[in-house]
Specification:
InterPro entries: AAA+_ATPase, ABC_transporter-like_ATP-bd, ABC_transporter-like_CS, P-loop_NTPase. This protein has helices spanning about 45-50, 95-105, 110-120, 135-145, 165-180, 190-195, 215-225, 235-245, 265-270, 285-295; strands at about 5-15, 20-30, 35, 60-65, 80, 150-155, 185-190, 200-205, 210-215, 225-230, 245-250, 255-260, 280. The protein is of the alpha/beta class. The two termini are about 45 Å apart. Bound molecules: adenosine-5'-triphosphate (ATP).
Length: about 300
Amino acid sequence: MSAAGIVVDGLRKRYGATVALDGMSFAVRPGVVTGLVGPNGAGKSTTMRVILGLDAVDEGTALVGGRPYRSFRHPLKHLGSLLDAGALHPGRSGRDHLLWLAHAQGLTARRVDQVIEQVGLAPAARRKAGGYSLGMRQRLGIAAALLGDPPVVMLDEPFNGMDPDGIIWMRGFLRSLAAQGRAVLVSSHLMNEVQDTAAHLVVIGRGRVVADAGLAELIAAASRNRVALRTTAAAQALRVLAEAGARVTGGGRDAVVVSGLSAEQVVALLGRSAVPFSEVSAHRATLEDVYLELTGGAVEFRAGAPSEVAL
Ligand SMILES: Nc1ncnc2c1ncn2[C@@H]1O[C@H](COP(=O)(O)OP(=O)(O)OP(=O)(O)O)[C@@H](O)[C@H]1O
């Protein structure tokens, strides 16, 4: 495997009785935005802290450009990260914060002004960071991550606190970093945040990878054997389909999504039992469907389950 980007291999970590990482392995390739997505508590932040050498693991390795992050003399030139946008001196201006970081890494004030421009923080750069909104702090954190012009960028929940304009900006910005050839890892617990941004997804649950694939591939896989059904005899249809092992979810009063059977199988089953229907068509899964399907068994905390018809 290429040494460029990030490679984590077999990470295991416990906090007392809690297993935070349970054999986590994946790679983050140059030129692509990789989304690290999973429910709260899945292990995203722990994985990122391990990559940065801030947390020790019980087993496994995490390499950046083929080396442990802590082995770099000027780490900002190898990996730029944003883990906690709140971690800055409130009385210091954004620009002074960056100057302080730059100085420690042998970087110039010119570079500081470049990254301020790049993230669109110029109008606020000389104001005290304590008065920044969370979205502005995120931009400042990203500016800090870019100071050393690193080939690898890693951001923990960068969409947090961003308004809709900020989210659109962030998506384009992350894509542009990848287009420059950088390896970009972005975590989120919300699937729709990484939509239009990440071309590759590492979906995690309970400390392990549950899917590691291209976005298009994941949607295609989740769309297979998903059928949209329109019928005025819903109860009868549900009974017949359930007997054949299908799962039926959501939809309106006469429209449901059937999982686990092909359109042909649904038509044959309904036909055999003389259940009337007006439409059976392939259902294209959404990112949210993919996420729920993959993490359904791995969610620690979930607010409101998806609408599911118990059969
Ligand atoms: N310092 C710690 N002490 C004890 N348990 C911890 C600690 N840090 C993380 N954990 C536990 O490890 C597991 C993984 O946590 P982690 O913060 O990595 O998840 P996450 O995917 O980043 O979640 P979130 O989306 O909520 O930030 C959770 O069960 C969490 O409670």
